[in-house]
Specification:
Elements (H helix, E strand, L loop, with lengths): L2 E6 L6 H12 L7 E7 L4 H8 L6 E4 L16 H5 L3 E6 L2 H7 L3 H14 L2 E6 L3 H5 L3 H13 L11 E4 L13 H19 L1 H5 L2 E5 L7 H5 L6 E4 L6 H11 L3
Helix pairs in contact: 1-2, 1-11, 5-7, 7-8
The structure holds phosphoenolpyruvate.
The site of phosphoenolpyruvate has 14 residues, from strand 8.
Length: 252
């Protein structure tokens, strides 16, 4: 399966800076045989799309979506609206949204299902907090978040979905999760999926690792069985650093 690397700008870069990032990243030498996407704030999707022109690398990823198709949901954005920008991926359930906006497993499940219906690949973020880890609840939390997130996906959909295992204690802290530990979490997520969609289908779902990934540790993850890519926050804000990270992840 093709590795997927996603740059997550989080709440950085409005339309003016977004265009500059895309143009600078397009000048980077990039590995072949890898999927690369950039998760941009909604307000910057149009600028990112116009800076890309006809180019498809990096693919556009949205950072969130609402589950209804249209209606009285002031401030929200639907999956069909995202398709108008040629968005191919969308994050759902990022821990920053779970923590700061109270997103629940049920909301995440509805969002993932809405994306799949619109033909956008949901990248479902799951991961335990530091407290949950300390209480020995990490595996229970992962099991619950994973099962809930896929509970509303259609079995016969042609649109794939992906997971990102992001231990909350590793995000933006510089305390990356050891690759071996990430492997165990990925195995658990895949195991939960296998129960619902079958072993063969579960093997085809990409599970990314996210949490303080940088140019120094990316190879550890990329050489770990069951890790199929990375979701990169801080180390993606500079397009040249993210370009280097892509080349380091997949040496040519
Ligand atoms: C993220 O934004 O999802 C993330 C993993 O951030 P960072 O790489 O900065 O830890």
């Amino acid at each position: 399966m093709k590795t997927l690397l996603i740059a997550n700008w989080k709440m950085h870069y409005g339309p003016i800076k977004a265009g500059g990032w895309i143009r600078a990243f397009r000048r980077e030498r990039l590995p072949k045989d890898v999927d690369i996407a950039v998760a941009v704030p909604h307000v910057s999707l149009a600028a990112a799309r116009s800076s890309l022109g006809r180019a498809s690398i990096p693919a556009l990823c949205a950072q969130d979506v609402f589950w209804a198709d249209d209606g009285a949901f002031t401030g929200e954005i639907s999956a069909s609206m995202l398709t108008e920008f040629g968005v191919q991926y969308c994050l759902v359930g990022h821990s920053e949204r779970r923590i700061h906006l109270g997103e629940t497993d049920d909301m995440v499940a509805k969002k993932a299902a809405a994306l799949q219906k619109a033909g956008i690949i949901p990248v479902i973020c799951v991961g335990e907090t530091e407290q949950q880890q300390k209480r020995g609840e990490a595996l229970k939390v992962l099991r619950q978040q994973t099962a809930a997130a896929i509970s509303q996906l259609a079995a016969n959909s042609k649109t794939p979905f992906a997971f990102a295992y992001e231990p909350v204690w590793a995000i933006g802290t510089g305390k990356a999760c050891p690759a071996q530990k990430a492997k165990e979490a990925h195995e658990l997520i895949r195991g939960v999926m296998a129960k619902k969609i079958g072993e063969t289908a579960a093997q085809q779902v990409r599970i990314l690792y996210g949490g303080s990934v940088d140019v120094h540790n990316i190879v550890d993850y990329m050489t770990t069985t069951g890790v199929n890519g990375a979701l990169v926050g801080g180390a993606s804000l500079d397009p040249r650093v993210f370009g280097l990270l892509c080349r380091t992840a997949i040496p040519s």
